[in-house]
Amino acid sequence: MTPQERRDLEALHEGHEEFFHAETDDVYDVANILDGSKTIDLSHGGGELRDLARDLFSDVKNIGDESLRKRRMDYRTRRDRAQRRTDAFARQMPELVQAYVEWSAANAGKSCSETGRCRNTWPSMDPKVREVQLYVVGIFCAEKRALHLQAEDYSASSALVCQGVIPCAPLRPHTAIMIDALELFRVARNRSPHLSVQAFVKTISDLQGVQYRPYLARLFSIALDVYLQICLAVNDFVLQALRRDTPDWRLKNACPACTYTLKDEPDLKFKMLFAMDGNDSLKRISREAIGGYESTAKGLGERFLGDDRYLTRSFVDQFGVGCGDESLTQPTDNDNPCAGRWKNMKEDATSRMWGIFDEAGIFMAICRHGFSLVIADIVRSGEQAKYPVAVVSKLLDVFGSNLAGGYDIGCKFQTTLNRSTVGPRAQALNYTSLVPAFHGYAHRRLCQLRFLARYVDGLGLEDLEGCERTFSKTNGLASAVRYASTFHRCQTIGGYIAHNDENDVYQNLTTMILNNYKQALGIIEEGRSTLPRVMNDLGITDVSVFGVWLSEENEYLTARSREPEEETLQMEYWQKLVNLDASRDLAWTVATPSSTATSTFVQKDITATMRKETMRRHALENFEKDLKIVQDIEIKLGVTKRWVPEDEEWQTAGRLVANRKYQHCLDQLESLVVARIFELSKMNQSGTGYKLRKHIAKALKARSAAIRTALDRFNTAARACSPPRPQLTFEEVVEYTFLADFDLLRNATREDISQRPWASPAARAAMDQYFKVCRAEEEIKRLNVEIRRIITYLRDEDRYMRACIAELQVSHPPLAHQVQLYHNVRAKFTNHHICLLTDTIRLPGFTGTALPGESTKTSPGDSVSHPEIIIPSALSIVTTPTSPLTTPESGDGDFDLDEFDADEDEYGDDESALTLQEIIRISSDGYMAQE
């Protein structure tokens, strides 16, 4: 519908001419003046525009009287109204933030019953103070309440925030939510991600003894968006005041134990250990895919709490196929021991995702202590290679050299990374790709020897499985973000992870230090008592032999990781000869039926004859095809005389084929046993429900039957080998818990390795025990470094924050209160950390030091730097009051709370009010400047 058609329809309503008579002409004249189509004479003294705006404002106020106007038809959609509301709140955001800072400072130290407003609530005789009635919703009460508007307030919304409530509409709200209730929900949702807005609003409705109505949840969501945006702006002001608003400052200081480096500390092989992985629980359904329109809601801006952890989509896409990194589609590296084994790195397989999902999950990296580093949205795809490549590129930019990252398919990713555009930089900065401990045992033995945590020097006891622990928490957000907009999904995820870092992860930092120290000391003590005895039984006199054994096993498996090319051709030639004999026999056995003319020769005989002729023709064509293949292979092998079963070459190749079939049967048996191991672990896992346990039990029963069938095939293939390979029983197979056992069976087909010293179970157990002791000693060394870093950080951070707060108490007390709140987020755990660090230092066998060091981080904003406070300009400028205010509607008696649009109808009629507020601000600023 065109604007003209809409005006024509509106002209049909009664009262249209009376409603828009002389007032509209003036309003449109103002609009013409603003867009430059008309001029207004201004004197040197100024003030004309301000006076005109005030006169017009009084007319608009009268127009807002319900008794003087008729309700006109509203053709706007809910989407239009939401966007207008968002724009109106965004324009008032600076004043709302300043009002919140003042309210928060005024209520500092008050009890919950005393908070809620920073102004007197008793009736005032001051004519500049107006009293309005609003429906205020709190935690334990929801009632009509008198609130005051003063002449110096910029707007009604900022006046309400000064009294501890967030309005649900920007201009003339009917309802407001208390800040205490919004903060309670924010913290409660971050503690229990399953909590939704609807559940919380239902809870407070029950506490208040009133009926829950859906419109309350929508109003609460509006106020929550405003409140979260205010919190974001306040957090930005705090970081700006502390000089901590530089790019990547949070990432560079994410973890005190990893990033707060000291002078003269021992060198570690890996500067930082981190884990990265993808999670597909936090999907978001595309509304277009289910018949709706895609929400464009971006909140009151494009930023949100925790957004400094997110990698932009444009940054991630530059590492994808088609964006300059075509190397990701190159063939798999043959030197990779797990080449072709893992499928989730294949671009053609992961580039497709269910069309119903827009974001298919998240990909994130965390340090070894659990602090989040970066997050990337997985957009309309699976876990593509561009996501880990982008993460590594970002971390290399920020932290530089000697990083080690654990990834479920780190072996495959190492090849992918080297072929990407980040590869040369990663190699120059000595980046190391590793495989986590739990996932590593699903890799081939050769891959374990190169990438598994136990055999990597300098890694310590870190298992690199931190992402799995983090995802076990974030999975609770799945229901909350499944149907959210893109902005609100990221807002929920980012806010939760930021809260988790500053509370759970930071609180458990020294707990992890203490537990790891105890674990390392226990491993070392056990190794010192048992390892010498085992070495004596095996006749080993020097521990260096374990390293030699590991090298020998690596060389053995590397040499047999692929078949020799000549053997492969011989086996292929043997198989094609067998196929040729079979096709020759088939061609001669297919005969044409007799065509003797009889009285019974009918149409069905003709059809059978034609079918036989077709089969014979196909058999001859297959014979000719197989003959051509045999001839080509004979040329490659240089065979002058075709092999026959009596030839020694034919028999040798047949035995090689039997060994190959043995390998294939072993692979199938291995996959079934591994699936059984995982199902057993899931069945015994806490939190597994009864129905899932029954389902797993049935699957195990079917899996056992499949294992028996695969075992029969394996034993048949084992008997066909030359010499025959050992056969297995069902009891032996189900006892296999490590894939290394299968690898020894797999690689024992060409030579007997049972006599190798490293192949016996006792020797392998001793070798694993030795490397566990080595990793424990490395863990002690790393923990000693981290303990001293934490002690130094606690001292320096407390000194720096106290100095900043003391300086701000003089220059800007409300901002000083916000900095104090920012400091308390971590400072509340200081005594806890000191107690646990003391327990760690008192452990028998502790070899570190409790003396603080001197940090190498001396940039502005760092904990050891000298405070250089900056007052944000938005807080240092006093907002010029405007008069009169747009007064929230109030009336006698109850209004219709079921009519949610009552808080939205203002945007059409009061667009002029917003315009006038801007005119008043401009004119007043100019008048003040002239004075």
How does this structure look, described?
With 931 residues, the chain is α/β, with parallel strands linked by helices. Helix content is 55%, strand content 6%. The strands form two sheets. Strands 5, 6, 7, 8, 9 and 10 form a six-stranded mixed beta sheet that branches. It has a four-stranded mixed beta sheet with strand order 2-1-4-3. A hairpin with a 4-residue loop joins β1 and β2 (142-149). α22 packs antiparallel against α30 (761-811). The C terminus is likely disordered.
Number of helices: 35
Mind describing the biggest β-sheet? 6 strands, mixed
Residue share in β-strands: 5-15%
Structural class: alpha/beta
Give the % helix.
Answer: 55-70%
Shape: globular
Low-pLDDT stretches are 8-28, 59-69, 116-123, 345-353, 681-688, 746-750, 878-887, 889-913, 926-931
Give the averaged pLDDT, no decimals: 76
How many distinct beta strands? 10
Radius of gyration equals 38 Å
